[in-house]
Design brief:
The chain is an alpha+beta fold and 214 residues long. Strands 2-3-4-8-7-6-5 form a seven-stranded antiparallel β-sheet, sandwiched between helices. It contains five helices and nine strands. Helices cover 21% and strands 29% of the residues.
């Protein structure tokens, strides 16, 4: 079960409880973690939060594209866009999510899509337009960050209109569309707020029960 009680699933087909796909191959899922959230800082500490999330993504071999505190159904939350290498083959997987943390649990809405057989077109095109010197940059949230996938301007939203079928464009757009449709259980909304991360437990986090939304 998750606290997400409502969600506009137009265009999505359920594949298993709590998991849906659309015609373009996007995967939408909802999750619940009955543990103190492992966010690196409080939501009212955006600089520390973004830097910690950037380090976490890089440490896992990926790259944080965006992290923005906001709200889901009026509850404080953080939105993330992350890129990771495809587990098999070339290219990348792009993941967009909202994490809604509470003091002792959290719920997550996630959208993800992978590059297909053709990869790197967006990156190569943008590099050709802006030049190599302006293409790569220090990570905007953690300038001295090493490791993970590099930060570059091709991931910026200004390029989405030029690449409407790119998985990053689609993940960003679907997450934006879904956000105002999410409804949370009033009992979850009334729980004590998130006040800071607890130490990571041995074995790390796992995906927990998921609930179908209507």
């Amino acid at each position: 079960m998750t606290p997400i009680t409502g969600l506009d699933l137009t265009g999505f087909t359920e594949r298993e409880p709590g998991v849906w796909t659309d015609a373009w191959g996007l995967v939408l899922s909802v999750h619940f973690f009955p543990l103190v959230p492992d966010l690196p800082a409080r939501l009212d500490e955006p600089e520390r939060l973004r830097a910690g999330l950037a380090r976490g993504a890089a440490g896992a071999g990926g790259g944080l594209i965006e992290a923005e505190p906001g709200a889901v159904d009026g509850v404080p939350a953080v939105r993330q866009l992350i890129k990771v290498p495809r587990p098999q083959g070339q290219g990348q997987v792009f993941l967009g999510s909202w994490t809604v943390p509470k003091a002792a649990c959290s719920t997550v809405l996630k959208v993800q899509a992978a590059e297909g057989a053709t990869t790197g077109v967006r990156e190569a095109t943008v590099m050709a337009r802006v030049g190599p010197a302006a293409y790569f940059r220090p990570h905007p949230y953690a300038p001295g960050l090493d490791g993970g996938l590099p930060s570059h301007v091709a991931d910026d939203p200004q390029w989405d209109a030029h690449f409407p079928d790119h998985p990053l464009t689609r993940v960003r757009a679907v997450l934006h569309r879904l956000t105002p449709t999410v409804r949370l259980d009033e009992r979850f909304k009334a729980l004590p707020p998130f006040g800071g991360a607890a130490p990571e437990e041995p074995g790390g986090r796992g995906w927990f029960g998921r609930r179908r939304n209507r």
